[in-house]
Amino acid sequence: MAESDQKNPGYFIFTVQDTGVGIRPEILQTIFRMAKKSTRKNAASNFTEGIGIGLTVSNAIAKTLGGEDMKVESKVGIGTKISFRVSNNKPRVTLPID
Hints:
Blueprint: E1 2-4, E2 11-17, H1 25-28, H2 54-64, E3 71-75, E4 79-87
Antiparallel strand pairs: 1-2, 2-4, 3-4
């Protein structure tokens, strides 16, 4: 979801929320670091969940677009909510994609 930031005109707030397995508190401190990621097997599907670079890259893109670090709220067994703000006054940035 994206909405105008009522407290800070000129910014948009983007929010993504899920009802997944959640992120353990000790992992929350490391989720934006490329060097240390936690992967585990999902008991229901028996697949390893993610490779661990998505949030790192997303956070870098948000900051490149004039935004702030992403904010994360999570409860194990309930889900995760991630949000960030970006300015609508910054010039467009072109990211090289191969």
